[in-house]
Write a structure and sequence with these properties.
Oligomer: single chain
Mean pLDDT: 76
Number of helices: 21
Radius of gyration: 29 Å
Number of strands: 7
Structural class: mainly alpha
Largest sheet: 3 strands, antiparallel
Distance between the termini: 87 Å
Helix content: 55-70%
Shape: elongated
Strand content: under 5%
Length: 582
């Protein structure tokens, strides 16, 4: 029994080294290029599962790198963020600087999509022109166009540029320098792939593969040694169907991991392939178009509030358009600008909701693979945690899910911060308008108050949805812990029953081969029991150290209740003061 305990310790240490390995192996060779800058060395990192990757963790396709993200541990550089924010916000006044530095020919301001080009080259100069026109021409303000109406689009412009600058703020100095000095075609490719798991559309397989590897790098996992063993024939068929997204030429062209046959005829599937397939399945669907329609309707109503109230009151000569020709032109300009800029802001903030919703799908799919309840597993591939390698493989997948797209998750926090700042501005404007009025009842049709109230509610909705979905993701880990505990109880019960039966058995009647076979099974069961216990501790640590957060605060339903209480109190105060008081 002493020898058995010593062997179990060795097995446990070997398996834990796979599951919680230190930072992966340092690359031993540099990637080399010939005179045409073509790739000549397929892999410099022995732990890398990709066929084409350089020493700095870039991702190569032929002679050009697919992604700019080369650092597995990104940080926020305020200097890069501030530079991009100022340069892009003050455009076109910064054109002399851009031509002097050569950036005018770069992807920032040239060769963009028609939508980006429309905002950058037409709408942004028009926003500045409208603000300057209102400031220098008193006829516009006298005709009923107020400063809040003009500042509405300008504030949305600032929020949009803050979100765009965030993308560059999370680049390292080397990445930022490479991006600035690259040619237009390469920069455009990098700019597109910088979105990672982003937004409203499904990412490319190559980007998912790269981000899955980056997650393994951050956790120090050697995914080349992690496999899931499948023995049941029905389960094999379910896994074949589940792995269909990775059964493509594109995936096989870049990934250097294949399925293999075990010594006893079982099927061994790379953990990297299962997780990549899960990510592709959960990110493979574009967001329903009705969500875009809802955003468009909200932005149209919000942009026309000032004109709608003028039309309803009937106090203006031209109703919706004000009292003069100048006010008509300004109203049309502000309506278009407010719609376009506020729509882009909502799209940026909406990516946080989309991303957490997709992560909820991912953690549920991985969690359902180890559920003991048959209803939870029906039609879904399962992972047998009685096999030691499967325990290490599943825990590795569960940890990697939290870190996939890590840089993009950090950017989403900045988007939410921008939304929070806007909410505070609109809340202060709302309360200031009510508190400064000697007759609050006269504010019932005040366009500034109505728009502040509308903006506050519209911006709070995605924040609230983020808290709800984030809380569900954090609670999912509790379901996973319950499943692991159930498997551990089953393993512990089996181990105790086996040991108890052996104590009652006369060992003198056992042959050496029978005793060795029994002892090997006992070691495996004991090692599985120990590894399940360690896995439970690993998940508890993950829950404490890396939960889904909103502005640095753990996403929980208590947070949602607190913020909702504050917002409701403010709305009740405004409603009673303005609309319910005679």
């Amino acid at each position: 029994r002493v020898h058995g305990a010593h062997s179990r310790t060795k097995i446990r240490q070997a398996l834990l080294q796979n599951m919680t390995d230190s930072r992966s192996t340092v690359p031993t060779s540099l990637t080399t290029f010939d005179s045409q800058n073509t790739f000549t060395n397929t892999r410099s990192d022995p732990a890398c599962p990709l066929k084409c990757s350089d020493v700095m963790y870039g991702f190569w396709c032929g002679a050009t790198r697919e992604v700019l993200e080369v650092a597995p541990f990104p940080t926020f550089a305020f200097s890069f963020w501030f530079k991009e924010f100022v340069v892009q916000t003050l455009y076109p006044f910064t054109l002399p600087y851009l031509h002097w530095t050569g950036l005018a020919e770069h992807q920032h301001f040239k060769n963009s999509s028609w939508w980006v080009g429309l905002l950058q080259h037409i709408m942004q100069p028009l926003t500045w022109a409208a603000l300057i026109w209102w400031l220098i021409d008193p006829k516009v303000s006298d005709a009923g166009i107020t400063l809040p109406e003009v500042l509405s689009s300008f504030l949305s412009l600032l929020a949009n540029r803050a979100c765009i600058a965030t993308k560059y703020g999370f680049l390292t100095a080397k990445e930022y320098r490479e991006f600035q000095n690259s040619d237009v075609t390469t920069a455009r490719k990098w700019l597109f792939n910088m979105q990672i798991l982003t937004s409203w559309y499904a990412p490319r397989t190559t980007i998912v593969v790269h981000e899955t590897w980056m997650a393994a790098k951050q956790l120090g996992l050697n995914v080349r040694h992690l496999y899931i063993t499948v023995k049941d024939a029905t389960n094999k068929d379910l896994f074949r169907e589940y792995l269909a997204p990775t059964d493509t030429d594109e995936y096989k062209r870049y990934v250097d991991l294949t399925q293999r046959q075990g010594s006893s005829g079982e099927w061994e599937i790379p953990v990297f392939q299962i997780l990549t397939s899960c990510v592709i399945r959960c990110l493979g669907d574009d967001i329903p178009k009705y969500m875009i329609y809802i955003i468009n309707v909200i932005c149209i109503i919000r942009s026309g509030i000032f004109g709608i109230i003028r039309q309803a009151e009937g106090s203006s000569k031209y109703g919706f358009f004000g009292d003069s020709a100048a006010s008509c032109v300004m109203t049309i300009i502000q309506f278009v600008l407010s719609y376009l800029w506020f729509r882009t802001v909502l799209m940026f903030i909406g990516t946080a909701v989309v991303d957490i919703f997709r992560r909820l799908r991912m953690v549920r799919e991985i969690g359902d693979m180890i559920r003991i309840c048959p209803e939870k597993r029906e039609g879904h591939p399962t992972i047998d945690l009685a096999v030691i390698n499967n325990i290490a493989g599943w825990v590795a997948m569960r940890r990697m899910i939290r870190h996939i797209g890590y840089r993009f998750q950090l950017r989403l926090q900045v988007y939410l911060l921008v939304s929070q700042v806007l909410c505070l501005i609109f809340a202060a404007e709302l309360l200031g308008t009510v508190a400064s009025s000697s007759h609050p009842q006269t504010l019932r049709h005040d366009p500034q108050l109505v728009q502040s109230l509308t903006d506050l509610l519209v911006l709070w909705v995605p924040m609230g949805l983020t808290m709800i979905l984030g809380a569900l993701v954090n609670r999912q880990i509790r379901d996973d812990l319950e499943s692991l505990i159930s498997h551990r109880v089953r393993a512990r019960t089996k181990l105790l029953v086996t040991e108890s039966a052996e104590l009652r058995r006369d060992k003198s009647n056992l042959s050496k081969s029978d005793f060795d076979a029994y002892f090997k099974d006992l070691e495996q069961e004991s090692a599985a029991d120990d590894l399940l216990d360690t896995s439970i501790q690993a998940l508890e640590s993950l829950d404490q150290s890396a939960p889904i957060s909103v502005l640095g605060v753990r996403a929980e339903f208590q947070l949602l209740v607190s913020t909702t209480t504050v917002l409701s109190s403010m709305l009740i105060y405004v409603g009673r003061t303005v609309y319910l008081r005679n």
